[in-house]
Design brief:
single chain; alpha/beta; 6-stranded antiparallel beta sheet; 7-stranded mixed beta sheet; 364 residues; 13 strands
Length: 364
């Protein structure tokens, strides 16, 4: 058994989401959003490099020695599955292990809004799941793919970095391909997928202009494309896509978004009232004629007003979703306050006044 598995076993037993190993500090566990050290000595450089070396393949060792960071999936001897990032920093080696649940979550178990099921009935276009790192985008996408797998006779091609949840074909055929193992880049993966008779293409991350262009092509040519971006709202997502492509493609990109972007789902994770878990809270933008017109006329800053008034269609702003979850006692109001945009609406629910902003009282 690799020695590193002992730390991973402890992390899983504690129910943490991430295990951090770095030189000069003890191993750390991410528990419901907070980082906590375990009772262990500070890790040394040679010691940690030896631990990490035990789980690397010869190819991975060579890449790491050449100065590359590594992203890969790892299954411990106990059967726990992890997404791993190994890197070097000033004091030595570091590694982060993200726990991947053994069971694929469902849309019901995540309690995601019903409109997401309707979005998955589209046969073409693009759905973007966005949010900052560690907000559960991969988990939501896994639930969406599982829903398609359970309800549609289709061919799903998933391009991931690395592969996290392992899907078994049910009604659908699912082909999972991993960056660096099965394909050199997301853009090349999409290009190849278009020759493999796909109905649905999942792109792990729209991280560069070429990938975005290929994903747009796939969405415009009769395929449903699911993808992620590290953006924190519908407006920022649309602006990021437009800005990522060359200036001479600006009008073409706006036209694509207004015609083929089905929805932007932005999420964050907020603690539950008992502090023992976190819940996905989502902002949802659906493409409408009004929003399409705002995109074409460079008035994306007015999109939040459309989200606010589009509740009947299934749209909601993040603040609306947070407020609804507070009133249903599904999330901790103190944690919700931290994520709210208009914090004044949430102050009356706060129980820990230390999270409130401090105002200095000036003298006469």
């Amino acid at each position: 058994m690799a020695r590193i598995d002992a730390f991973l076993k402890l992390g899983l037993a504690q129910g943490c989401s991430d295990i951090h190993l770095a030189v000069g500090v003890p191993p750390m566990l991410r528990m419901h959003g907070d980082l906590m050290p375990i009772k262990f000595r500070d890790l040394g450089d040679t010691e940690l490099e030896a631990y990490v070396g035990e789980i690397l393949t010869p190819t991975q060792k060579k890449r790491f020695e050449e100065g590359h960071d590594l992203d890969f999936s790892y299954v411990s001897e106990d059967g726990g599955r992890f997404r791993v990032n190994v890197y070097r920093k000033e004091t030595g080696v570091g590694a982060t292990f993200r726990s991947i649940p053994g069971n694929i979550p469902t849309l019901d178990s995540l309690d995601l809004p019903p409109v997401i099921r309707k979005l998955l009935e589209y046969h073409q276009g693009m759905i973007l799941v966005t949010g900052s790192t560690g907000t559960g985008k991969s988990t939501t996408l896994a639930a969406m793919i599982d829903h398609l797998n359970s309800t549609q006779n289709c061919n799903i091609i998933s391009l991931e970095d690395p592969i996290e949840f392992i899907h078994r074909s049910k009604q659908a055929q699912i082909i999972q391909r991993e960056l660096g193992t099965h394909l050199p880049s997301f853009a090349e993966g999409i290009r190849a997928a278009l020759r493999e008779d796909p109905d649905v293409i999942l792109v792990g991350e729209l991280r560069d202009a070429e990938t975005i262009q290929m994903a747009m092509t796939a969405a415009e040519t009769g395929h449903l494309v699911l993808g992620t971006l590290h953006t924190t709202g519908a407006v920022k997502t649309i602006d990021r896509v437009i800005d990522a492509l060359p200036g001479d493609m600006r009008e073409q990109t706006k036209s694509f978004l207004s015609q083929s972007l089905n929805a932007v789902i932005t999420q964050t994770l907020v603690r539950t009232p008992d502090g023992r878990g976190r819940r996905a809270i989502v902002e949802i933008m659906l493409m409408t004629r009004a929003i399409a017109k705002l995109i074409m006329t460079d008035q994306t800053h007015q999109i939040p007003a459309q989200l606010q008034t589009g509740k009947d269609l299934g749209m909601q702003m993040m603040d609306q979703a947070l407020m609804d979850a507070i009133q249903k006692k599904q999330i901790d109001p103190d944690d919700a306050f931290r994520y709210a945009s208009d914090k004044s609406l949430f102050q009356r629910f706060v129980t820990d006044t230390s999270v409130l902003p401090k105002f200095e009282v000036s003298g006469p």
